[in-house]
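Mods, move this if it's the wrong board.
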Amino acid sequence: MTLRMVVAGLGYSGAAIAVEAAAKGFAVTGTARDPSRAAAVPLVGFAEAGEAIRAATHLIVTAGPEEAGCPVLLAHAAAIAGAPGLRWIGYLSTTGVYGDRGGAEVDEATPPAPGQPRSAHRLRVEEAWRAVAAARGAALDLFRVGGIYGPGPGRSALEDVRRGTARRVVKPGHSFSRIHRDDIALAVVAAARQDHAGTRVLHLVDDEPAPNADVVAEAARLLGVAPPPEIPFEQASVAMSPMGRSFWAENRRVANAATKAALGIAWRYPTYREGLAQILKG
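Not the wrong board. Structure tokens:
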């Protein structure tokens, strides 16, 4: 039987997932708001994706939520309900659903407690997908994703250092969990290839939550330039956007051991060091 995956949202992460899935033997179709742009897999318009979804065995949703909910569910609930072979659904959510934990660790069994409206909205979309998957008996993987970085303009601290816009913001005890784009693809495709029932929560974060200042310093070291000076958070926050300050308002360390064990994988880039080095090399 041909495995047919629809990647609903062929953006930065979605494109990497599509390439990974195709390499692992899936017949892949991607959806995008603008189907005229170049893509590594067959591409259809978002509004016309119903036919592809009805033929799919696997559906991964990377598209972000709208005010009314998940755009894929809003547009294609009937196609999802009526897809005879659809057996697996994946949804890219966010570790933001855990809210602020004062630097404490959260694992895959930790109950969500979103502190930001956007994270509460994400949790509601997760619950909507739980209901849809349960109603049709499909497996569901909820991927809670950390900060995404990878190759490409503006996608890593290397680019910030090169442009001279990098800042080493210091907030004692504060770390961020992050993940390389290609490890998102690795994990999603590994999950899609498994047979399981019900819903799983999986954490797409690397092995080392780290302070912002450490990542910028490593990028500068790799480029052979002096790192920018450290800036206390209290000083840096004055120039931050409300969105930027909201990210710094939450501090948690996201564990991934259960996810890696469930998927039988090791990260290609287990920390930001390997990830930045590969971006520079590539």
